Amino acid sequence: MSEYGVLALAPPLLAIGLAMYTRQVLVSLFAGVWIGALMVAGWNPIAATALSIDWIVEVVRDPFDTRFLILILFMGAGAAFIYRSGGVIALQNWIGHRVNTARDSQILTWLIGIFIFFDSYTSTIVTGNATRELAEDNYSSREMHAYALDSTTSPVTTFGPVSNWIGYQVSMIIVGFEAARVTLDDLGLSAFGLFLQSIPWNIYCLLAFFMVGFIAITQRFYGPMLDAEWRARSRKETIREDATPLSDVSSDVGEPSEQNPTLVNFFAPILALLVVGLVAMWWLGGGHEPGVDVATAFQETDVALGLLYGAFAFMVVGMAGALAFRTMSLEEASDTIIDGFKTMMIAVAIIVLAWAIGHAADQVGTADFIVDVLVGSGVPGSFLPILIFAAAMFVAFTTGTSWGTMAILTPLAIPLGYELADASILPVVLGVLFGGAIWGDHCSPISDTTVMSSIFAGSDHIDHVNTQIPFACTAAGITVVTLLLYGIGLTSPFVLLPFAFIATAVAVVALNKWDANRKGLPEVMPTTDEIDGGVDTEPASGDAATRRDRSIGNGSYGVLETIPLVAVGIVVAYLGLVFVFATFGG
């Protein structure tokens, strides 16, 4: 147990609470760091201030963190070249006539995120850049764009089939068995095989991924996202009037060049990022050495360095294309690099302070306190998955790191599962642990992956968190119900997973109907053209909701439209392959 007791929760909870209340993320994060330092410094405010600065310097000097910060800057410059060189204009000329509504752009974001399964950062960056302007042009709110990025990329990278996330999770399974003093050979298992068995039990991630597509296709929103989408469609404001986007390429970099816009300037930098990043991670993990398979290479790789190489290629190829096609001069290209760096400054500051919060939480024993209270409470073996899921959610929410949560809990969860039940429960425990860790990432404003989604959607960060939380909590709530059924004896994933998907769809529709009726808004969000044909574009509330002119009815979307049909077909095929992989791959 932490020596500070319940006060160990103070640094992260203060930062999160202040950020949600004041919307001043930087000040709130520093306040959390300072409170942690105040506790460690014996309640001496001067020493606490000095210690806070020392902690910030310490996290920045960490090799992984330093590489990641430079990576973020290179990404900003590369995105600036794609925008300013006219690559985005070329993309709009090519695909714009096929993506005609906000619904189309949202489904496309979900679909692209599936194909970049090897790293969540890369997926967020590439998918965000590829679809942001299409979302903007079709009046999809930036909050929805950020949600689609955040709740697609992390879940997909946990399934693979190959990703740095999987490599990390497999390494944590090995650590967990070392803590249990049981060898995998004794159980006739491999770490990778056990990971594959855990995929059907990663219920939260499966539901979170499913919800993005279901909400985008049906256009049924609820909570703050309903208000955000109505604002974007009815008033054509894709971002709240007084919001502060973490990155806004159009305002920070300038207008795109209309001189010879070409798709090469859009796709070549992204292709360079993907190829160089993927090959670099494979190489750094020893993939070129005899006897090292792909899964092992991604497990052992230096993720930050591999992605840094990819990000540098992203920037250089963007600059080369801009110069080769003469869309800008050398001086303009140099200015674009600096402007691209500038777009990332707020995001870099938030990420550094989020890391410092994590360091402060570690110093005061936040995770130790949570684990001792939740995991040490003692429950019947069949209900252990619910406890592990709750512990993972809370640890990840308060520390802002899913990987850190996995590192903290896996060495505890595997011995507990083995002792309280038997080896058969281990895939369940691991699946819910990985899912709970990602729920915490999705809901915590101090999570780096959540910050990244806000960056590349151009969203206000707190707006993204506020609009995503109700959706994440819906998926988590259905997960808890499913685990309760497991606890009382219904243990087949072939029964529980279909139940979970159906229950999630029913919950989304029910919450949408209730919230839309309460606010006097359409249940199925109409397009801007449909709204323009109505007479009332201001959202109503309270008694006014019952009096407003309801001539703006529900949106009307074709059942057999190309984009949703293609998306559903690809997703079904993808999930089918994942489950085949999980069943026979080990």
UniProtKB/TrEMBL annotation:
Residues 527-549 are annotated as: Disordered. The chain crosses the membrane at residues 6-22, 29-48, 68-95, 107-126, 201-223, 263-284, 304-325, 337-357, 369-397, 469-488, 494-511, 557-584. GO terms for cellular component: plasma membrane. It is a multi-pass membrane protein. It is found in: Cell membrane. Keywords: Cell membrane, Membrane, Transmembrane, Transmembrane helix. It comes from the Archaea. InterPro entries: Na/H_Antiport_NhaC-like_C. Residues 156-488 form the Na+/H+ antiporter NhaC-like C-terminal domain. Pfam families: Na_H_antiporter. This is Transporter (NhaC family). It comes from Halopiger aswanensis.
